[in-house]
Amino acid sequence: MDEETKIPQATAKRLPLYYRFINNLYLQGKKRVSSKELSEAVKVDSATIRRDFSYFGALGKKGYGYNVEYLLSFFRKTLDQDETTEVALIGVGNLGTAFLNYNFMKNNNTKIVVAFDAQKERVGGEIGGVPIEHIDNLEEKMGNVSVAILTVPSQAAQGITDRLVAKGVSGILNFTPARITVPSTVRVHHIDLSVELQSLAYFLKHYPL
Amino acid sequence: MDEETKIPQATAKRLPLYYRFINNLYLQGKKRVSSKELSEAVKVDSATIRRDFSYFGALGKKGYGYNVEYLLSFFRKTLDQDETTEVALIGVGNLGTAFLNYNFMKNNNTKIVVAFDAQKERVGGEIGGVPIEHIDNLEEKMGNVSVAILTVPSQAAQGITDRLVAKGVSGILNFTPARITVPSTVRVHHIDLSVELQSLAYFLKHYPL
DNA sequence: CAAAAATCGTGAGTGATTTCACAAAGTCAG
DNA sequence: CTGACTTTGTGAAATCACTCACGATTTTTG
Fold this sequence. Notes:
Chains A, B: Homodimer. Chain A is α/β, with parallel strands linked by helices.
């Protein structure tokens, strides 16, 4: 618990990535893996991988590497892979639809259980097995999911955020360009597609490799 | 030129974000803005904003703040907003379609000019004004765009990447879960939607706010 | 079994980024 | 015009992240 608090954020962000690759190795029937091999697969320096793993104790064996099955079961526990986090998706536009069709449950502990939209034509049906409700019924139909994915037009972002927060959501994955305001008890991760593309273009022009 | 090379990467990543908010202010008719106001809007510490701006010289005035119009024209030049970067999109599935419908040209210097897909049913039409070609004709039809957005199934990612690289692409925005291998002259930015969601879930459970 | 090879875990160094905190310089009201 | 106020730009400190390099330990080979 107190131990976990000390794990650097940069490490925490890489854990799901490690988990997925270790799972792949397991499915391929590999018994052992070295930090060097893993490094080539996930494109993270091998010393960084060893350091990351070391925050959880000594998971490997010198001269041998890491036992895939052990590593997998360890990360499964650590990432709470056995316990599913239920997620609501707000905004069934192009991007929202993509998420609903995406099968998050592969290698994953998160599941979209309900979606909302403002357009009546979209309400009532379902996409990828997820029922679509009207945004007016947000409070009533969202149950107590703790995480929401926000894929609405930016103008609507803050208003819906306020309602989500009032309903007790504690994490928001925000795909709108708007920077939303939340109480300090709520965690927001921003993914701004247009910033990503622009920033890639900027790097290409100004940081020649 | 040499000056620009020294701008920290962390700063460079925030520039497109600054640009968009400054543009909003300009459209709202605001004449001046302080780092404190901007900080509240973009959710970046005001000292960080001042430091970021300072890499470009003294853009503000003490006791006054920053002149919105000046700032905007400065960032327009810096981010090459007048010069459009042409982009190809590979994989017109759910996510790819979302991109094509998304209007990137708002506040933006990037434009998707051509899309490719392996399914014949999708080829020939267009989405959001962008023509869809068959992946077999990639080399022939992509012209010399320098940036590609990869929204294909992970199994196809490396193969297509190799073809893109051979054709001279220098930047790839990779939305597949696969970690692709490229020569050191090519820049890749990864956006892994499932990692983002899992990592948010992990932070919620282990880093209480 | 002994020597060679592999590989982890980590101390220590380096580098990058953020934040504090304040002098300097300007604005603004009366 | 003066004094109170605002806000920048930046040195210096603090924090965070990454990488090197090597001792320790185990595996592997002959």
